Amino acid sequence: MNRILGKKVEGASGPLIILLGGVHGNEDTGVHSIINVFRTIEERKIPIKGKLIGLIGNVRAYDKGIRFLDYDLNRCWTEEFVEDLKANHIPELAKAEDIELLDLLMEIEQLVKTYDTGQLKILADLHATSSDNGNFIVIPEDEADQPVIQSLRLPIIIDLEKYLNGTLLEYMHHRGFISFAFEGGLIGSDRALNLHTSGIWEILYSAGMVERRHDHEFAKYDQIMDSFIHKLPHKVSVLYRHKVKRKDCFKMRPGYHNFMAVKKGEAVADDIKGEIIIKKDGMIFMPLYQELGDDGFFVVKEIEGRL
Ligand SMILES: [Zn+2]
Q: What CATH number is associated with residue 268?
């Protein structure tokens, strides 16, 4: 696959919006939803204001349908790592994700350079999860009140980046972007594809890129939201992270999904040392039901109810 999924520029003003899918190569719903949106814009000749681009994060992993080849492309965006890679890149010795990171960064830097209008810069990083009910937004804390974030009306996780080092959204946040991870739900599910597709339209609208009347997708987003909004928390904070290593043979017990209540003392998973017990009451978050990943699960608590 080509890294660029679509590109559209109209007028000299308006926001720069980067839609990113497949930073984890096995999460294809983001990529398909970006393709959907560009197709609709073309077919219905929907006018936009600003610059819209859709990119695949990890092309090599996406082509193979796996999360990553050598290392996780969403855990490596620390200033030191990126600077070191830029300065000491030796193509013959490069790992797959070294090349992916450098290519992606070059693409984004080029966009910023050629379209610096001083207006809103947004990066929506589309992901999907291996467990159900994985619909949420991850942001750097001070972005919670941004209209673009609010428009999605999904649970907002405000401090996950303290636990996940080197996420792309943190790196781009420091470069003036409103950047967030938009988790659409279960990998490969129609529901995730619909939520991502119609969610992108919400983003384009709230950023002032399109006018609402041009698309029916908004109704779809409302419908999807209505189907589960009452069960979801509004703003949550992380209490605990259970880190895993490959040799732990971590196995989540079946039946857990995001934002499901768990009690202190409950055994939620097993590894070579035995049962893994919850230490504090809360809600389970991102339980791991796939082989690759460093986080077994998180426990979160709601800090602000939905109005
Ligand atoms: Zn992901």
A: 2.40.50
Per residue in 140-178, pLDDT (tens digit) is 877 888 999 999 989 999 888 788 889 999 999 999 999
Ligand 1 center from residue 165 Cα (angstroms): 14
Structural domain of residue 196, as residue ranges?
4-231
Distance 283 CA to ligand 1 centre (A): 20
| Number of domains the chain is built from | 2
Distance from C-alpha of 41 to C-alpha of 17, rounded to nearest angstrom: 14
Which residue type occupies 94?
Answer: A
Strand order in the sheet with 274-277: 251-252, 267-271, 274-277
Report CA(129)–ligand 1 centroid distance (Å): 6
* C-alpha closest to that of 56 among 99, 123, 5, 106: 5
Same domain, 57 and 71: yes
Q: Do 269 and 296 contact (CB within 8 A), yes or no?
A: yes
Q: How far is the CA of 23 from the centre of ligand 1 (A)?
A: 7
- Alpha carbon 23 to chain centroid distance? 8
Task: Give alpha helix (H) positions in 117-214.
Answer: 147-152, 168-173, 190-206
How far apart are the CA of 71 and the centre of ligand 1, in A?
A: 13
Cα–ligand 1 centroid distance for 13 (angstroms): 32
Predicted confidence (pLDDT) per residue in 210-229, tens digit:
987 655 666 778 888 887 65
Residue 115 DSSP class: -
Among the three residues 231, 248, 279, which one is the final residue of a domain in this structure? 231
Look at residues 205, 231, 257 and tell me which one is the last residue of a structural domain.
231
Give the tokens for residue 4: 């660029």
